[in-house]
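Entry type: protein chain
Record version: 2
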Amino acid sequence: MGKSKSPYIIEIDSITKRFDDLIAVDQISLKVKEGEIFGLLGPNGAGKTTLISMLCTILYSNSGTAKVNGHDIAKNPDYVRSSIGIVFQDSSLDDRLTGKENLELHAMLYNIDKKTREFRIEKVLGIVELKERANDFVRTYSGGMRRRLEIARGLVHYPRVLFLDEPTLGLDPQTREHVWKYIKQLVKKEKITIVMTTHYMEEADELCNRIAIIDHGKIIALGTPTALKNSIGEETVILKIPDSNKPKTKEKIKRAFPKSKELDGRIFIPVNNSERQIKKIYEKAKKSGIKFIEIGIHKPTLNDVFLHLTGREIREEKADAKDIMKSHMRRHGHRRV
């Protein structure tokens, strides 16, 4: 598809999605720049998958509008679909086919001619390092290999935007890092935009140029990972003190570290540069007669940002909007609702 004239590859204006009494996406407005890795971070049930499903034209919105690659998702859904790729949270590969056959089937659905199809399949298999396993049945692939094949399938028709819904869910840490490497390579080599959902803080921090933190269907924070972490304050040096409740100890701590806070026997001391300050704090505590059994550094994380904004940590939910969405679609007997 042709290139969008706007500097933003995705433009969302007050989009909303309801499932019966649940507001899964609540008047979200957002713009995604071309060529960036944009993350939607939040717990299960926050509305991340529902938002992506609307942008991919799988679901109708109840109100609001959105454009993907310059095309309105409601007025021109076919144009939107032809310019995007998607890797679903749940695997949708056919494990009775080989890796190459899965890619061929997908390419044929996009009416790619045989010669072009062969060239593109060879290329995307190279990107995800699966050329040697191309003719093996998918049922023999590991979880990480299947994820890489799904990414390759999402690329075979040369999309402008690739949506990744929880791309490393269920993978072990080593395989997760390998998938991160491929995602970074995609943006660098293929010049595409990636929009991904995740509830892994370290994944969003590692990959994303910008992040929208979503909770209960609303964007509660938006910015670069660094800016979001810096927004909640300074780094902290932590002293673990066994007798922090004793009056004399409290007095010593207050005199030595007047800006500190105490919680469950740990003293939190705000600093500007924890690596440089930790030695000074260690020496000051010793000099002040404060007995401690442990000293460490804590730098703000994206989970701290979420905790600061909501009063709770990002966590798994028992039933999320995705589960409700699936139930709703089954009841109504069609894909798009």
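Comment: The chain has twelve helices and 14 strands.
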